[in-house]
Amino acid sequence: MASITLKGLTKSFNAGDDAPAAVTDLDLDIKDNQFITLLGPSGCGKTTTLRMIAGYIVPDKGTIHVDGRQISAPGNVVPPDQRGMGMVFQNYAVWPHKTVYENVVFGLKLRKLPSAQMKKKMEETLALVNLTGLEARYPNELSGGQQQRVALARSLVVEPGILLLDEPLSNLDAKLREQMRVELKRLQRRTGITFVYVTHDQAEALALSDQIAVIHGGRLQQYGTPQEVYARPANRVVADFMGLVNLVPAKVVSVNGRTGTVAAAGDLKIDLAVPDGTKSGDNVEVSIRPENIRLSTTANGSSTRAKISERTFLGNISEYYATLDSGQTLRVQTHPGQVFAVGDTVAVEIDSTQCSVFRNPASAAAHS
Structurally, what CATH architecture does the domain formed by 244-367 represent? Predict the structure, then answer.
């Protein structure tokens, strides 16, 4: 369908050279026929980026190319209706006074297609989004999920090469969001359209995406597969944003090539990969996901002792807060069948292969 290349993209809505930009020097290479998510907290610049791709916002610097054709540069922007893109908004933006049929065929009418051809395309698209038989209904006669599918159908019926989606599931309840995630992924695979999706929901991004662009403070922090950004975060910002994590202060005890031993929370020793240039004595932080901590009643040479301070049963998992002798508390997730009581003393073992190390600012500055 279509590939997208963002090069040096910058946009500020504030006057003055010192004003912070909404998006700063963003480079992104989105390949054809992929589901890409722009992920980050509110105000990070992800929606601004999406609207620059759509052509609603003019960049201050940088360019946007689709299949090698430049469509955006400062002072030279191809209008949105000439980009071959569809857009699905957070609030659905379906017309309440029009039927499903009238909403879906709106773009085809603008293209002055014959009635028979419009009807055929509309029926094919409604079948694609599981709305067959609802052509005569009005939006107030539909559920939230059905209204969202009407918005999808209206964008898909004009056969765009790229579909842009701005937090389209945020107004749905949790169960419906989960159902729509599955439908969106299946839809992208069936159509082969390049999807660019904006969300602040990490679970949504992990479930849907071929690639995730994590954006924070208007800058790209990491671009990679869901597995990469979750298990191998590029920096502390990504580690902290991508789900639950324990960020534990530590000191480097020794370094041997690309691996090192760090002492965290007193007597907790962890052997793991360390950043280039790390030296013995450096202060660092270790990111440890709750699911990569094992609790048991039997200690071994690689474990340390802790006391259970809190326990929460969450159905498919149990969550514990385990406080080490040093006072450091770790958040731990286990199988619900493994049960400890508050006050129990347990052995804590870390899966070091799933941990990451980040220098603290003082250590990073000392090596720069």
Answer: Beta Barrel (2.40)
